[in-house]
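This part of the workshop introduces the protein records we will be handling. A record pairs a protein's sequence with a compact description of its fold. Comparing a sequence with its tokens is the quickest way to learn the format. The record below serves as our worked example for the rest of this section:
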Amino acid sequence: MILALRPQLNAKSVRHHRLLMKRQTIRHAAELDRLEALVSSAAAATVERMRDLFTKDQHLAVLALLKFTTSGCDPLNSDRPLNLVEQLNQSFTYLASIAGARWLLERHPTHAPFVLNLGTASGSDIVSEDGQVAAETFAATDPDSNDKLRKDVAKVAKSAAKHKYVFFLSPIPAKRTDVPGVTVVKLDHTTLSSIPSINDA
């Protein structure tokens, strides 16, 4: 009897594949749509798994499962288990990068393609292949918490790119946006529409 076995990737190949997924070259908005669809699909898979979990009476046990187990999944690969907190952080950071790249495609189309570094690679989160555009991106409850905005502005300011940006996704506007040489942009996304901003408090 002959069995048709699915080829197995070794650990090195798996890591290489994940690195490729974390580094995306973007030429067209359709490529950003594809990435956002992956993040959305992973979110849907996790929420579906959460339904039964949230019907349990052992409240601390439920929180422990969310905190300490891989109850979530990779935002770019819903088949890969991941801690829920990591999925939350990565998902909205990716959405910020996707929205930032979409903003750049509209305003700097001649500098496309843009490279999105969605992992922990060194360098800017978004950079044009011609080196003329560089951007940092992040998502946060408050863009000024932990001095995140100032640190990202300082980081991208060191870039040799002509056009420098910091994009952030948050329901709260930044206190400081007038940074010489760096444009700070508060991104809009449909996921934030139901969250009240500081101005609504």
